[in-house]
Design goal:
Blueprint: E1 3-7, H1 12-23, E2 27-32, E3 46-50, H2 56-63, E4 68-71, H3 78-83, H4 85-106, E5 110-116, E6 128-129, H5 140-159, E7 162-168, E8 170-172, H6 184-193, E9 198-201, E10 207-212, H7 213-225, E11 232-235, E12 240-242, H8 243-254, E13 260-263, E14 274-275, H9 278-284, H10 292-305
Parallel strand pairs: 1-2, 1-4, 2-3, 4-5, 5-7, 6-14, 7-11, 8-10, 9-13
Antiparallel strand pairs: 10-12
Helix pairs in contact: 1-7, 2-4, 4-5, 6-8, 6-10, 8-10
Length: about 300
């Protein structure tokens, strides 16, 4: 078992990952600001470590002694990076590079970086995207993720830091934070729970690859158990669903119709992104994923019964 540091352990993905790592016997430290004064993770075996990702002293103390570092913290969202791209550069990108440098100094064995399985590829005419497809992001969020990936390559080349970029598609499920304005499924379910209309971005034809958080975390655990052979992996379902299809699935789960308010599609949004997941499947075997309906139903049930 390994000494694991999850950076962003109080977030949606980080908290689920921290719980899963602890459940499988790893020694887990959860680094975050804990600004909400609550702990999103549930395991009593996760050791919380309060700190500021933008303070190198806090980060240096966190990585000291860690074997595996999971970088699952972002200071921006796609929307906020669009509004203020320089903030993404000054905070998210800069602090991530500082983290990698500190990991080298601390002798960390491997860094797992939560990259993007959508924005990083950008608008292209292809229908599916494998890891060797050109990365042509046009959004500040995607550009930032790709820049951090390139620094992973830099530190691997110059300092031997082992790392892997996890190009995650569109994760959803319990503990997602709709208030951050990211993720059509959690945002819509939360609005319906509060009696508000759903918001449809664009004309409903935009296609994305959605993966339930439990299925995503199960993939990451397999990569912890057996060292990955590649430097980047697409982590998604490999199936595409349009916005209209997602809203129809939500309608079926909640058992009623609902009002839909339309919003313009930002110029930097990609129309069609479905991940080719053959690299992961060939190396780690097939995955038994929840269907979109099953995943939405699980999310809705846990959201309305907590």
């Amino acid at each position: 078992m390994a000494r694991c540091l999850v950076i962003g352990a109080n977030g949606f993905l980080g908290s689920r990952l921290a719980d899963a790592l602890a459940r499988t016997g790893h020694e887990v430290t959860g680094f975050d600001r804990y600004s909400r004064r609550i702990r999103a993770f549930e395991s009593p075996d996760v050791v919380p470590l309060r700190g500021d990702f933008l303070d190198p002293r806090d980060v240096a103390a966190a990585v000291s002694g860690a074997e595996y570092v999971f970088h699952f913290l972002s200071t921006t969202t796609p929307a906020s990076a669009d509004r203020e791209p320089t903030v993404d550069l000054r905070t998210n990108v800069s602090a991530s590079v500082e983290l990698l440098s500190l990991c080298v100094t601390a002798g960390v064995r491997r860094v797992f970086f939560a990259s993007s399985g959508g924005a990083i590829y950008g608008p292209q005419p292809r229908r599916t995207f494998a890891e060797d497809a050109p990365a042509l992001p046009v959004s500040p969020y995607g550009i930032g993720k790709l820049t951090i990936e390139r620094y992973l390559d830099y530190y691997a080349t110059t300092a031997g830091l082992d790392s892997v970029a996890l190009r995650i598609s569109n994760p959803y499920g319990p503990r997602a934070t709709p208030a951050k304005g990211q993720g059509i499924i959690p945002i819509t379910l939360d609005r319906l729970r509060r009696g508000e209309p759903a918001v449809q971005v664009g004309d409903g034809s935009m296609i994305r690859d959605y993966i339930h958080v439990d299925d995503l975390v199960a993939r990451i655990l397999r990569m912890v158990e057996r060292a990955p052979r590649h430097r980047a992996y697409n982590l998604g379902s490999g199936r595409g669903h349009s916005v209209a299809e997602v809203l129809a699935a939500i309608r079926a789960v909640v058992g009623r119709d609902f009002e839909i308010v339309r919003a313009p599609q930002p110029a930097t949004f990609v129309d069609h992104v479905v991940l080719d997941v053959a690299r992961f499947r060939d190396e780690y075997g097939p995955a038994r994923d929840l269907s979109l309906i099953e995943g939405i139903a699980d999310t809705w049930t846990r959201m309305t019964t907590r």
